Amino acid sequence: MSNLRELVRYPAAVVGLIMISVLIGVAVYALVALPYDEAVRLWRGGEAIWYNTPKKAAPVWTNWFREEDLPATITIDSADGAIAKTREQVSEDVTDIQFAYTFDYPYTTFPEDISIYFDTKYDEKPPHVSLTWLTPDGREIRIASMTTESTLVYRLDQDSKLERRLQLPDNVQSHMGLFMDPESEELVALPGTYTLQVSASVFEPESDVDAEVVIYGKVHGLAGTDHRRRDITVALLWGTPIALAFGLLAAIGTSVTTLVIAAIGTWYGGWVDALIQRITEVNLILPVLPILIMVGTFYSKSLWVILGVIILLGIFGGGIKTYRAIFLQVKESPYIEAAQAYGATDARIIFSYLLPRIIPTLVPNMVTLVPAFVFLEAALSVLGLGDPVMPTWGKVISDARVNGALYQGNYYWILQPSALLMLTGLAFSLVGFALDRIFNPRLRDR
Amino acid sequence: MTLELNGQPSNNIPAELSETQQFRSDGPASAATSRDVLLSVQDLHVWFELKRWGFLNAGHVRAVDGVSFDLHHGEAIGIVGESGCGKTTLMKTILGLYQPVQGNVRFDNQDLSELTTRDMQTYRSKAGYVQQDPYGALPPFMTVERILSEPMVIAGIKDRNVRDQRIREVLTEVKMTPVDDFLTKFPHMLSGGQQQRIVITRAMILNPQLIVADEPVSMLDASVRVEILRLLQRLQASHHLAVIYITHDLSTVRYFSDRIFVMYAGKLVERANVNDILRHPLHPYTQALLAATPDPDYRNALTHRELPPGEPPSLVNPPEGCRFHPRCPKKIEGLCEVEVPPNFEPAPNHYTACWLFR
Amino acid sequence: MTEKETLLSIEDLRLYFRTTQGIVQAVDSVDLRLGVNEAMVILGESGCGKTSLSRAVLRLLPNNVDTYSGDIYLEGENTMEMADEAFRRQIRWFKMSLVPQAAMNALNPVLKVGDQVAEPLIVHHRAEKEEARNQAAWMFEKVGVPVDFLDRYAFELSGGMRQRVALAMALITLPPLVFLDEPTSALDVLTQANIFNVLKNIKKELAVSFILITHDIATSSELADSVAVMYAGQIVEVSDARRFFTDPLHPYAQLLMSSVPKLKVEQEPTFITGQPPSLINPPSGCRFADRCPSAFDRCSEEPPVFLVDGQQVRCWLYRAKGVRA
């Protein structure tokens, strides 16, 4: 369409179009890479899924802005087979299993926490495990010894014995003590190669011990994590198609319906027109947000229910008045009269002769309306009315607010979804305003 | 091209609606010019109700107030009058867009108001409408092909090929060739003259017997007007069309009509064939119109024109008696402002509603 | 042409607009001369640039002007050299005013017509309301509107009355020059004749000069002392009325004259095939050449203006008879 060619004359519109394409690309990717069920499952979260991601970790790329990088999570699993395991039968009943986790720790900052997930196989007698820590500067620190029931999780910071043994100052946690540089006056970590030795004694020939060591970093992933260890990327990714779909469906749904109703009212005139105008006037007075809150609180918070209510309330909106004014004018056009003269029915005139005239006004309005609905959905989430199941941008912001993100310095948590909301709004607005200038020549500069 | 009529003027002038100036066609015309009556307008009154506050009656606009005439197959008449004289309303009533409050329009001897919807559709295919504003008359978002298909689609011609063929046929006839170039164009891509040709094509597309043209050239440039008028002339001749040509410009009407009707304030004041009207106008209003229409002559700038004072009357409260009397330079005191003049025939086939010819 | 004192002298006026499709050369080097108390008609069809010409002289320009150059001498003073504000205060509606196209529809619907007519006096001359109103009443009389219409609103008046009000608005400050852009194109024959009667009276009584812009050749003869024909942004012929209406020189003018249906003369009118060229990228050479029945090989070069017996013609056909202007 020639209009599309005209659109690219406006640099703002080109930027907007690129942004929208990116958003659509992300949305498509999200739908393809993470099918809906998968996304919901991931977002429901839980120990099993997110155990090896840190809590409230910042995105990895924030290290760019730091002088000293924060550590990423280091995960080593003996079950992978990358670690050499030695098995030595010491006596008739007892077999020694030894393996060591050796890793590079190039940071001067401390990890968040250390947890070790044991996966042991035995019949009746659980193995006995002891852990030893080797620092780069040659110190050996005994961590703990314990009997490992089948899936024991050993969390370093919860080990009070270790705490007492290490005798650290008050503000230093156990895991920090393991990495701490003893020489330095400041509290920094000692970069270098560390080794965690696992010495296990099993009492049955078939028994085996595997362990996954997770040294929780303070940065994770593209978007960081939240209070439930969930990778926020999931929500940001999946929020994109939801936001776009919501916005587009609501915008198109209300605009098109409004247009058709205005056309019908204006064409038939008389009581039909009067009825539609009165309904519109009453509807304009109704407060949308309180009604949505009521529906959300008493009926259902499902995204689609809310969308439905928004569209219903939006149909008899202010657009009816605007379109009516335009239709009243177009109705007087000679070509409409000619159509009547060659016998066009009312329906045909409305749909084939009146409506196409208004499409130019409709399109920019519709495009500019999309971000309004996207923000509405986010606003509802922040108010606690968001869909409980689906990962949306609004939900992320809501979680961040509830968990005090700004107070604790987890700015990424709020800023990322907000930035995406803003970008969406900006993209559609840029395109919408340029379209407006094209379709309404009076607004043009030239 | 003569008309056989039997005028039956009535001498009693009763209250409003019962003015009888009926003209009935007297059966088949004389052998010399046997042309059947295609359209017969009989004592037509088209009034619009004025409403106060949406529902209270506040009088009527008496747009057409007692018009009668006959139109024959293949005949072209020009209806001349100023804005507000009712000619547009008359035309739209003939096209079936308005309903008369009294009197009727008969097409092929059928009263339009008695037609069923289906018959109305048939009538619509027999009467083509050419409008004044060529750009406004075409939907700006439709291609030429679509514009021309619409009347056929509505008339029930389902076969695409038949429609396509017809379109090509008529476009060739109006000399818009090569046809394929024009089919995909939108109205704004065409010049004024070309747009008007498309309007004419659309009016012709269902092979009508009657064309109603409302100021078809007044919005076109001078150099194009004659072209379009010639086209209409040619179409009329080759298809034996009856044409009603409505205008306020007397200078174009002579090239295109057999008879001229002059309309003032909802009534016909003079009817005659072209040459008679232009050379021997009888009604003072017609004379004023002719005197006021300039030819390009440098002496015009040096002379002051004599014109009837005032303006055309409101159609809500038209003057009593002859509606032109407040402005007429030849008014007869005591007669013209009291009694409505009937139609007189001072010369053969030259009718005028003026007391001067009693 | 009697040599009247020159009121307006335009030299090499150009006005080009920037549009999405290119540069529209609406007014392309126009030269004109108008005397005191003289009426000139600028004849041309739609798209020839005549409305732009009036806008150029009155400096009523839109935003997308690309070129605006030339000299306009009004009563000896070059208005092109004035700053916008000075022009607004001293020239517009002071020495030149305009009755725009469809002026009758351009009246403010919420003001009484008397107030609208009085407004230019209050704005430009700082007149008192009472004084302005009296002047408006006097002007109403001159244009033929009953004085008690001063307090009516635009919608209460007929088309002809509204056009007279628009005329009164343009004349109220008694400027020596008034532009009339298609003043009667939407009006009926009788009303039109009335308006021209009014214009003739005003011309006589107030010694105003008129520039009448129209495409209607017949009505233009009602007022014209001289005629200028405009085609594709250029003036192709300038002549006094008598010679123009009897025997125009330029082929375009001749074809125009013969395309006018005449009431009193038996003559089959003709039409001109083709269309005027677009003002974007006008063709080189004579712009009328491709529609001209008398075109020959020289026409591929742009013709200069020739003087033939006091008439100016931009056409190679007169290269022998005339002197270059």
What is the secondary structure topology, with strand pairs?
The complex is a heterotrimer of chains A (about 450), B (about 350) and C (about 325).
Chain A lengths: L1 H6 L3 H23 L2 H9 L2 H4 L23 E4 L7 E5 L5 E11 L7 E9 L6 E7 L5 E8 L5 E3 L4 H7 L7 H6 L12 E11 L5 E9 L15 H37 L1 H16 L2 H11 L4 H13 L2 H14 L2 H8 L4 H37 L10 H10 L8 H29 L7
Antiparallel strand pairs in A: 1-9, 2-3, 3-8, 4-7, 4-9, 5-6, 5-8
Chain B lengths: L5 E2 L15 E2 L12 E16 L3 E17 L3 E5 L6 H8 L7 E6 L2 E2 L5 H10 E4 L13 H11 L5 H14 L5 H5 L8 H13 L5 E5 L7 H18 L2 E6 L2 H4 L5 E6 L2 E7 H6 L4 H9 L51 E4 L2 E3 L6
Parallel strand pairs in B: 5-10, 5-11, 8-9, 9-10
Antiparallel strand pairs in B: 1-2, 3-4, 3-6, 6-7, 11-12, 12-14, 13-14
Chain C lengths: L5 E14 L2 E14 L3 E5 L6 H9 L6 E10 L2 E2 L5 H7 L5 E4 L13 H12 L4 H15 L15 H13 L5 E5 L7 H18 L2 E6 L2 H4 L5 E6 L2 E7 H6 L4 H8 L47 E3 L2 E3 L9 E2 L1
Parallel strand pairs in C: 3-8, 3-9, 6-7, 7-8
Antiparallel strand pairs in C: 1-2, 1-4, 4-5, 9-10, 10-12, 11-12, 11-13
Helix pairs in contact in C: 3-4, 3-5, 4-5
What does this structure look like?
The complex is a heterotrimer of chains A (446), B (358) and C (325). Chain A is α+β, with helices and mostly antiparallel strands and 446 residues long. Chain A has two domains: 2-42 and 230-443, MetI-like fold; 68-216, Jelly Rolls, CATH 2.60.120. Chain A contains 15 helices and nine strands. In chain A, a hairpin with a 5-residue loop joins β2 (85-89) and β3. The longest helix of chain A is centred in the middle third of the chain and has 37 residues, at 232-268. In chain A, 36% of the residues are buried. The mean pLDDT of chain A is 84. Chain B has 358 residues and is an alpha/beta fold. Chain B has one domain (6-357): Rossmann fold (3-Layer(aba) Sandwich). An eight-stranded mixed beta sheet of chain B has the order 8-9-10-5-11-12-14-13. A four-stranded antiparallel beta sheet of chain B has the order 4-3-6-7. Chain B has a two-stranded antiparallel sheet with strand order 1-2. The relative contact order of chain B is 0.14. Chain C has two domains: 6-88 and 176-277, P-loop containing nucleotide triphosphate hydrolases (Rossmann fold), CATH 3.40.50; 106-174, no CATH class. In chain C, α3 packs across α4. Chain C starts with 5 loop residues before the first strand and ends with a strand. A nine-stranded mixed beta sheet of chain C has the order 6-7-8-3-9-10-12-11-13, sandwiched between helices. Chain C is an alpha/beta fold and 325 residues long. In chain C, β7, α6 (189-206) and β8 (209-214) form a beta-alpha-beta unit. Chain C has helices at residues 50-58, 84-90, 113-124, 129-143, 159-171, 189-206, 217-220, 241-246, 251-258; strands at 6-19, 22-35, 39-43, 65-74, 77-78, 96-99, 177-181, 209-214, 226-231, 234-240, 306-308, 311-313, 323-324. The chains are: A alpha+beta (446), B alpha/beta (358), C alpha/beta (325).
